[in-house]
Amino acid sequence: PMSYDVFLVSALEDRDTAKLIARRLRALKFRVWFDQKQEDETFDAKDARDAMNSQSMLVLWSVNAVKSDWVRAASAVGNSRAGALVEAGLD
User: Fold this and answer.
1) What kind and span of H or E run contains 16?
2) Distances, alpha carbon 35 to alpha carbons 19, 22, 40, 70, 83, in Å
3) What is the pLDDT of residues 36-56, one digit of tens each?
4) CA distance 71 to 46
5) If you count Cβ atoms within 10 Å of the first and of the last residue's Cβ in the chain, which end, N or C, has fewer?
6) 3-class DSSP state for residue 85?
7) Which DSSP category does 40 fall into?
8) pLDDT of residue 1
């Protein structure tokens, strides 16, 4: 399975900002997992596997993210791994 340096987590409403951050990280040669086509709030087995195959998880917190089941589920997975979770506030 592909491994990533960074598993990028954001609310659907914050996708434009997340895209910019993903682009910047990739320019710095990080391998970034970011689902630009995500349409639902279900954090599924494939998402969990990709998260576990990543060195770190970057969660972009915002008013929208706090309300997102997907963001909360993803951050719980990141939080379960010592030293993997990195958090940033957008607002």
Assistant:
1) helix 15-27
2) 9, 10, 11, 12, 23
3) 777 777 889 999 999 999 999
4) 15
5) N
6) strand
7) S
8) 61
Cα atoms in the Cβ-side hemisphere of radius 13 Å centred on 82: 0
CA angle 79, 82, 87 (to 5 degrees): 45
Strands (E), 10-84: 32-33, 54-61
Q: Which segments in the chain show pLDDT lower than 70?
A: 1
Q: Which two tokens stand for residue 54?
A: 């990543």
Q: Report whether 33 contacts 4 (CB < 8 A).
A: yes
CA distance 48 to 69: 14
Q: With 0.85 as the threshold, say if the pTM is over it.
A: yes
d(CA 48, CA 21): 21
